[in-house]
Amino acid sequence: ITADLLAETAQGKSVIEVTPKALVTPSARDWLKHHKVELIRGQSSAAQAADRSVGSLAIVQSGSENVDRVLAAGSWKRELVGTVDEAAKLAISEVCRGGVKRVVVFSREPEAVACFANRNEKVRAAAVTDIAGVKRVKSGLGGNVFVVDPVERGFFELRNILRQVEA
């Protein structure tokens, strides 16, 4: 987790939760101290799976204000990660454990996340740009991991994508 990632995704928050093994850079620690934001390490993967035996997980590798607003308005569990590789590994872990039914990853490199995640035979990941893409991936591929680039996506567009994933 870097200071730049926190500046993108944690503005205005007093507490953020990260995965148990997330690496937090010294600049990120300084950012947290300066902005008086508390960092909480999430539960172990086994505990998370027990808490979320069904439902949806949003993994935020690259966020935006609209991503924060959409996730705050819904019932999505949110995890922050620092890299594309961490995003893919967390998505694979959750799908393989049966911890969630569906995963949405927000990343500026959606194709890379989907490619890395698809290295596991239980994962059917794809980069999507709109609700029509979500429908195609769900019906044609049986998708369980959807990767979205949040840059220049409005609140309503992101909300509609998440709703289609949940449908």
Q: How many distinct helices?
A: 8
| Structural class determined from secondary elements | alpha/beta
Shape: globular
Largest sheet: 5 strands, parallel
Total DSSP E strands: 7
User: Rg, please?
Assistant: 15 Å
Sequence of secondary-structure elements: HEHEHEHEHEHEHEH
Helix content: 40-55%
Low-confidence stretches: 44-54
Give the terminus-to-terminus CA distance: 32 Å
Strand order of the largest sheet: 4-3-5-7-6
The chain-level mean pLDDT equals 86
- Percent strand equals 15-25%
Task: Describe the 3D structure.
- Residues 44-54 have low confidence and may be disordered.
- The chain has helices at 3-9, 26-34, 45-51, 65-73, 84-97, 110-117, 131-141, 155-166; strands spanning 15-18, 38-41, 56-60, 77-80, 102-106, 125-127, 145-148.
- With 167 residues, the protein is α/β, with parallel strands linked by helices.
- Helix 1 crosses helix 2 (26-34), helix 4 packs across helix 8 (155-166) and helix 7 (131-141) runs parallel beside helix 8 (155-166).
- The strands form two sheets. Strands 4-3-5-7-6 form a five-stranded parallel β-sheet, with helices on both faces. Strands 1-2 form a two-stranded parallel sheet.
- The longest helix is centred in the middle third of the chain and has 14 residues, at 84-97.
- Helix content is 46%, strand content 17%.
What attributes characterize this protein structure?
alpha/beta; two-stranded parallel ribbon
Write a concise synopsis of the structure shown.
With 167 residues, the chain is α/β, with parallel strands linked by helices. The chain contains eight helices and seven strands; from the N terminus they run αβαβαβαβαβαβαβα. The N and C termini lie far apart (32 Å).
